[in-house]
User: What shape does this take?
Amino acid sequence: MQVSTVYRSYLMIFAAGFIAVLAIFPGVNFVLDPFRYYGNHNTPPISHVDIRKVYAGLLAHSDYDALIVGSSYSENFLPSEVGVKLGYTFLRPALSGSSAWEQATVISRGLRWKKIKFILWELRPEALNQDEDSFRRGPFPLYLYEESLKTHLRYLYSVDTLWMALKSLVVRARFSTETSGTWYQVYTFGPNVVLRVYNERCRRLPRDSMNIKKQANKSPDAKKISSLMETFRRTILHTVDNNKNVHFAFYFPPYSLYKHVLDMSVGKYSVHAAVNEQIVQTLMARDNVSIYDFQAEFDIISDFANYKDTSHFGKQINDRIIDKVNRGERLRNREDFNMDAKRLKDAVIAFSQTSQAVCQNVK
Assistant: This one.
């Protein structure tokens, strides 16, 4: 009888403690709201947080009517500067290494909360590589973007949320929607670093792959093109067609000639060129779309002082992109795009034959 009473007492203490934890745990997360998911604070979240989690909250609670969406190539746009030139209030949820699925999800959340008028969207065939299955199974915090009861339970009872909540009490550095995520002041730019990266990458390739003239004449992989275009239709095109009151300004970023040589050596160049042509043909038929093509801007792509590696350019190029958008120098027809594509291909082949493109210590 006495043992039973003691047992019952311990059970009640355990139950009370368990209930207290169930109440305190989410209470702390809700009040401190480290990722600003509920917009509970005027102060921004701390710096060095998971940017994909942070933007789920910022998309709901920030003041904006335009978005800049893309990957690391779009991270150096400064929203305030872009806003002055284009006349909107921008939020920049550009996510390094993001896929088209992630980007479309970001836009969808923004459209659910705000009346968005304008979206600047980076166009890269590489962003179409991820299929929906791997996106949903991947590390992207989709639950924060597709709001439901599960979202709140998972956020409030997350150990990661609690850890960031406690960390926010002592860390003073704060996330900035203007500069967090930018990297133009972090890296060294110039021909020497670009050449070093190029040599590191081409050394991994078989010797015969660097016969660019031979590679350039190979037929592109039709199955790969079909797969990328299917992703394009289900992400980018779906977003455009379901938001006809939003103007979408798409831009093709300017990769350096070195990147094009590397892509051509492994068969990616022809696939991407074919995909880009189909994307342009499809998007130009939409009234709420404008396209800006920087791929064949030779004064950019042949000046390696603009780059920190074979593809990533500095903020001065982001500024040029915005200036061109501001002037309305959009792509007018498919013929101009195809002509520039041919000029670019010829320039890549010609560059590959120069001493600059000779890969040092090729296998």
Summary: The mean pLDDT is 90. The beta strands are 66-69, 90-91, 118-122, 247-252, 289-293. The CA atoms of residues 228 and 243 lie 22 Å apart.
